[in-house]
Amino acid sequence: MRGINDTVRAAIFAVALSLLTACGGHGGDSSNSSPATPAGGINLQIVSFGDSLSDVGTYAPLASAVGGGRFTTNPGQVWSQNVAQYYGDTLKAAYTIDITHKLTAQGGLGYSEGGATVATPANQSDFLTAVIGNVEMPVNQQVSSYLAAHGSFNANQLVLVWAGANDVLRAGQLPAAAPTVQTAANTLAQIIGQIVQNGGAHVVVVNLPNVGLSPTGLASSDGGANLTQLSQLFNDTLNSALQTAGLQAKVIQVDAYTWLNGIIANFQANGFAVSNTGQACDPKKTPDNTSLLCSPPTYATSNADQTYMFADDLHPTTHLHSLFAQFVEQQLAKSGLGH
């Protein structure tokens, strides 16, 4: 793991000390009580499960020391926040990290956490250990934590599920990696079934984008071929598992794989100056070369959050998140949720 320089450590430690005298957190549950009709046409409460692609601020109490907080071009939002706003809600973190590198419940409904997996142990990868420790809550535990706190899901909620990328990234090389990826996909289908069985009426299931087309994929020795095959294997297995379990008609599937391929192929037409070949967060300026700790002073250019596709070697920029949120909203409208 790349080390964090002393200046950054000092800044994070200063924020951590301030947490000792601060109380509370994010307040109560996300609310859909706004009387105004939102852009989406209906008010829905948003619940999110997954990893860094949907994390709205689990590690913000420490990452904010250097202007970070989410895995994108901070202070920009991730797609799940945009979708929440579209339906009149504000998505807040369910847990945030504290000074002791432990997760503390905050009452929000954003359960997605950077580094989280579906079926791969968190300690299999030293993910930003110096900043957050190995505290990532796997997706099944995220759902269990929600049910323990809230009992069930309801018809006024939109449940977002996007997970599996970390299982793919940690699986290794094919063919040995296949069982790991297939187990993760089958497990995710079971978790989705649990959500539906516990009252989830509007459940969005996002498949994996082509991880092989990320900067980290392009930089690998095979140019991303293995990660592309693993992404496809995960998606095919998940789709089959949902079909076998009779869940396909009960969820709204969003094809991020095909969508991202199309955006990359037409990146300039979608407002990007740099495709999947560069990072908006300058690796020389961004602590640990992670978008979690990226902010305007560490951008490659002043408007990199809008002109680059990727923040770091894996995570979308603010603009790419915004475009994906719009795509999801369009799919939801086709399903009959809003317009």
Name the descriptors.
two-stranded antiparallel sheet, alpha/beta, globular, Rossmann fold
Explain the overall architecture.
Strand 7, helix 11 (about 305) and strand 8 (about 310) form a beta-alpha-beta unit. It is built from twelve helices and eight strands. The chain has a single domain, classed as 3-Layer(aba) Sandwich (Rossmann fold). About 35% of the residues lie in helices and about 10% in strands. It has helices at about 5-20, 60-65, 80-85, 130, 140-150, 165-170, 180-195, 215-220, 225-245, 255-265, 305, 320-335; strands at about 45-50, 95, 105, 155-160, 205, 250-255, 275-280, 310. The longest helix has 20 residues, at about 180-195. It is an alpha/beta fold. The strands form three sheets. The protein has a four-stranded parallel beta sheet, sandwiched between helices. The protein has a two-stranded antiparallel ribbon with strand order 2-3. Strands 7-8 form a two-stranded parallel ribbon. Helix 3 (about 80-85) crosses helix 12 (about 320-335) and helix 7 (about 180-195) runs parallel beside helix 9 (about 225-245). The relative contact order is 0.15.
